[in-house]
Amino acid sequence: MSSVRAPRVAEQLTVDELVRYGPLGRAQMLVGEDLGRRVSRVALVSELDQIRSHGPGTVVVLSATLGHGAWMVESALRLAWERSASCLVSPAEAGPTSATAQLATRMRLPVFAVGEDPAAYALELAAVVASPEAARARLAARCAELFTERSSPRGILGVINAEVPGVTAALLLPDGHLLAGQSAAARAEHQVRVEVPGPDGRRWADLVAGLAAPPAPTWAESVRLILRLARAPLTTSVARERVSAVYGAEQARAALAALFARPGGAVEAEPGVDLPGWRLEGRHVAVFLRTDPALEGAGLSPGVVSAWQEVLPELPLAPWQDGWASWWTEPEIESGQVAAALRRHLARMRVPVPLSAGVGRAAEGGEGLRASLEQAVLAAGATVRLGHGEVRTFDELGYRALLGTLGQAELAAAARLVLADLLAAPDGPVLVVTLAAVLDCGGSTGRAAARLGLHRNTVLGRVERIRARGVDFDHPDQRLALHLACYALLPELQNGRQAATQQPSQ
Amino acid sequence: MSERLITAADVPALLAGAEFFSTSAAGEGIDFAGVWLGDILDHTGPVRLVAAGDLDPGTACAAIGAMGSTTAMAELPPSGDEPAVLARSLEGRCGPLGAVLPLNAASVNALFPVAAAALLGLPLIDCDGMGRVFPLIHQTTFELAGLSLAPMAAVSAGYDSLLLETGSARAERLARVVAQSAGGWLLCALYPTRVGELAGAAIPGSMSRVLEVGRVLLAHAPGRPAWTGGPAHPPWESGPAPDGGPSWEGGPYREGGPGARRVVAPHERLLAELTAVTGASVLGGGRLVEIGPSVRQAAALFPGNPVGLAVHDHDSGRLIRIEAHNELILALSDGSLAAAVPDLLCLLDRGTLRMTGPGRLTAGDLVDVLVVPAAPLWHTIPGLALGGPGAFGFPLRHPKEASR
């Protein structure tokens, strides 16, 4: 027997719990004050004086033989209050009135009215109070049954939110991003939290239950049990969603490949692409997403596709070449609008890797789409060097888009060789960045200084040091190659500079 | 020695006092009896009100009281010949009566014994057997002292005459049936005894108390200057208002010197006087927040209309719950039994400065709840068994009993 039994928490139920999943849920709650009172036992009283013999924490159930009238309920209320009873249950026909309720409110004693036979009711209450685990198990069983009928995280969270009153539940990523449920749970002062493993068995998210008040240990334990019951269905539903995302993405890739394999004119004649949300006719603007070439790999697709679908469920995203492709189709669409929308969506998207995007020109029909997507791919090749979240249109980049097609790794290696002297300087990287800016500005040190946010003399000083290292950028037949070499090194130099500036604060 | 006369001029005070001691039935249609008594006293002259000790202990006497419905009585009023019929009935058994006394000096039964004394030319003994209204004719201190209720003479509106020779509880049951069949009420002469037996069996001074309370209430009746009449003036009532303003005419009034500006509301002054006269205490007062039918107690034998009232005590914030079954039976303060029969619970309407009852109240009225302690005989164990909450079907112990 290797299993270790969890330590038992205090076994007394509270009035609150009897309301939530005990027989008190069926009673009419006349006064709901101070429901956190512990319940130690149940007493059926047929004479008022009997109340005096019961200790604190008793649920006082008034027998039908006790007599009727508001006076009787109020007398019982008073006696129960004097004995620190946990609550009072009166037969509905005994006649507690609104004045009685006010009195109970002042005494902060919960009062319930029941329409059924008080004797049978007291018996049922006593059974629940005697065995709190059974009552807790009943609620947990109810939730477990409902979990099996729900297939999405949203549905599973809905069960908790609906069936476990007083509790708001949310599914949060470790960084706090809300995946499903109510965001109030994440902000709640009192929480019960369990980790939810992903399909790979590692922590994927947290299931959080928010409670309005500090929960009694028993209640917290009940909530924890229900959250744990929800874990497996959540993991399953996530796995199912990922599988379907990958399947959908592969379908989309096949469809896209079919589209591009056809000769230009034939596209409109036989659409062949039958995926929801995909349209070939009309005016398109294609987009292409890429991540840092160092991070690229086949394993990324499910994460990127499901993150995309979370934000843009109506647009399919297809893995394509070394990135992901999609397009907007609307009668008056322009690439600028798409770039702005995409920028917004990328900021909201919870992607596993940094993404940048290129946007093609607006074009009509299948052939136009192909052209737009090619432009987007070209633009993405350039934006991927600019950093995470960057979105540029093909037109914004102009001829620079061409640079995106150059093999980054080979070019950078060659650039490091040809600029070895310059890089060897103590401030080598700074000099390369400065050189790139001066070349960008057609040799004007003034404009380069403005662009870099420096004083012109600083730039002039650096140009002197660059020249001192034997770099002559005025020579026409060297100039293009030099400019390219700088560009090939810029991304890694900029990243290195960012890392260097971040270091002190880490 | 302490003989007083009750004249026609005393009838209004008698009516007001009778109203005070009749709890929830307060003043419901007993004015007819006042008119009737006034006429009789005009013809016969005043009635001598004497203490039992002032009479020869061997004098034969009997308690006079009506049972049944006062509404029926107002519709079929007594003719005035009834007391003579009663006296004749009893004469055969006990000899001629030398004095009469009230069965209970409250409601119409504070007036009928006066009428009987006037019509029979007999003195009225200043005592009674209840000190209030109880629903059953044998709920008396006479019963507690072991006096026999029978023989009991009764006469109905139709001059049906009846002499019952039986036990107390059976007499009550039989007479109740007869009263219903014979027009709704009976005038009865019962507990025939000798004056000497009354010591320790009757509540002395009951009639004087009714008159005294009646005078206090009359003095405060709306439209009357507060300082005219009335037996006991609190010290602040000795002259015009101390702030030098106009004389008191029923509006608010300031107590104390010019520095003390506390306004004494008219009902507070009336309450102060009533408590001084009766030894009563004020349980609380405020707005009536709830009034409605209550539930008949399983053990209750009485004719009665169960009504529940809840008063929100203005000063303490407590909830005063009053349960009425014709009589005001008990008062709970925040669920704790604060007062119960046999002590007298009465309600003062702050608006009219008159005693009031469930039949005349609506939610929202402002009332004060007074508790007049019952005579010590009632607080004995047999007394509480006969007239305590248990006798009305309430499974509660009287506060006196609970504190024992």
Automatic annotation (TrEMBL), chain A:
One Pfam family named in its UniProt record? HTH_30
Q: InterPro entries from the xrefs?
A: CdaR-like_regulators (IPR051448), CdaR_GGDEF (IPR041522), PucR_C-HTH_dom (IPR025736), PucR_C-HTH_sf (IPR042070)
The record, for PANTHER family, names: CARBOHYDRATE DIACID REGULATOR, DNA-BINDING TRANSCRIPTIONAL ACTIVATOR ADER
Q: Which residues form a coiled coil?
A: none
Domain PucR C-terminal helix-turn-helix intervals? 431-487
Protein family (similarity comment): Belongs to the CdaR family.
Signal peptide stretch = none
Q: What is this protein called?
A: PucR C-terminal helix-turn-helix domain-containing protein
Supply the source organism for this entry.
Nonomuraea wenchangensis
Q: Which residues form the CdaR GGDEF-like domain?
A: 277-380
Question: Domain of life of the organism in this record?
Answer: Bacteria
From TrEMBL, chain B:
Which residue stretches belong to region Disordered? 228-260
All copies of domain S-Me-THD-like C-terminal, residue ranges: 170-219, 269-396
Q: Which Gene3D superfamilies match?
A: CV3147-like (2.40.390.10), CV3147-like domain (3.40.1610.10)
Q: Which domain of life is it from?
A: Bacteria
Q: Which InterPro entries match?
A: S-Me-THD-like_C (IPR048350), S-Me-THD_C_sf (IPR024071), S-Me-THD_N (IPR010318), S-Me-THD_N_sf (IPR027479)
Pfam families under this entry?
A: S-Me-THD_C, S-Me-THD_N
Every S-Me-THD N-terminal domain range: 10-165
Name recorded for this polypeptide: DUF917 domain-containing protein
